């Protein structure tokens, strides 16, 4: 028996995206930013 991956509905994807966007805006991921904030003169992401 082969199991197919669970299908995500657009409503599910929007809910997950909205939830994590709210976490980012709420500061839950600030620990991932450089100490002085984002660099203005050079690339700080990969």
Which key terms come to mind for this protein?
46 residues; mainly alpha; 1 helix; 0% strand; elongated
Q: How many alpha or pi helices?
A: 1
Stretches where pLDDT is under 50 for at least 5 consecutive residues are: none
Shape: elongated
Biggest sheet details: none
Which percent bin holds the helix content? 25-40%
Number of strands: 0
Beginning-to-end CA distance, first to last residue: 40 Å
Roughly how many Å is the radius of gyration?
Answer: 17 Å
Order of helices and strands: H
Structural class: mainly alpha
Residue share in β-strands: under 5%
3D structure, described in words:
The protein is an all-alpha fold and 46 residues long. The chain contains 1 helix and no strands. It has one helix at residues 10-25. The longest helix is centred in the middle third of the chain and has 16 residues, at 10-25. The radius of gyration is 17 Å and the shape is elongated. The model has no long low-confidence stretch (mean pLDDT 82).
Detail the topology: elements first, then pairings.
Layout: H1 10-25
